Amino acid sequence: MSEAENPPRRAPRWAWTAIVWGVVYALDQITKALAVAHLEPGAVQPFVGELLQFHLIRNPGAAFSFATGATWIFTILAAAVVVVVVRMARKLRSLPWALAFGFLLAGATGNLTDRLVREPGFARGHVVDFLQLPHWPIFNVADAGICVAAVFIAVLALRGVGLDGRRESRQQQESGAEGA
């Protein structure tokens, strides 16, 4: 058979979501384990001068230590995000969306893992944060994955790229905005 009769198979888009998830999730969990094993809580340790420092904290809240008394709510929200992303990822036809979903899934599962297995207990665990940039809250690899996903999603939405990979024309976007 010729290549025209039997085109090479491409990996399904959800496979790219799974690959990105696996790499980023593993990196998140490994770096958190290293941070807990080698850093003193609250002590600042320069890594790249003052540009990037290690500063281990345990975060009971959401981003920027928001709502520290509602840890169980963030556990439920993260679990819901995981379910929605996994269900939607199976239908993706767009590589950029698959990558965005992989970063989002890794971030959500990375911090969800902390909430489920770390102290003070199941569904109330504190997230390990240890990376600090100047004038920025302390974060971790999972948080960075969520931010990367947010940028991907914003760019794709602004460019009118659907989950199926098709691009809406400027005219379709404007008529959709007028009808809303």
UniProtKB/TrEMBL annotation:
Region forming the signal peptide: none
Pathway(s) this gene product operates in, as recorded in its UniProt entry: Protein modification; lipoprotein biosynthesis (signal peptide cleavage)
Catalytic activity, EC: 3.4.23.36
Reactions catalysed, as given in the entry: Release of signal peptides from bacterial membrane prolipoproteins. Hydrolyzes -Xaa-Yaa-Zaa-|-(S,diacylglyceryl)Cys-, in which Xaa is hydrophobic (preferably Leu), and Yaa (Ala or Ser) and Zaa (Gly or Ala) have small, neutral side chains
Compartmental location: Cell membrane
Top-level EC class as recorded in UniProt: hydrolase
InterPro entries the UniProt entry points to: Peptidase_A8
Positions of the catalytic residues: 129, 143
Keywords: Aspartyl protease, Cell membrane, Hydrolase, Membrane, Protease, Transmembrane, Transmembrane helix
Keyword Membrane: yes
Top-level taxonomic group: Bacteria
GO process terms (BP): proteolysis
Membrane topology, from the record: Multi-pass membrane protein
GO molecular function: aspartic-type endopeptidase activity
GO cellular component terms, semicolon-separated: plasma membrane
Transmembrane segments: 62-86, 98-117, 137-158
Nucleus as UniProt keyword: no
Function in brief: This protein specifically catalyzes the removal of signal peptides from prolipoproteins.
Membership in a protein family: Belongs to the peptidase A8 family.
Protein name per UniProt: Lipoprotein signal peptidase
Record organism: Kineococcus rhizosphaerae
Gene: lspA
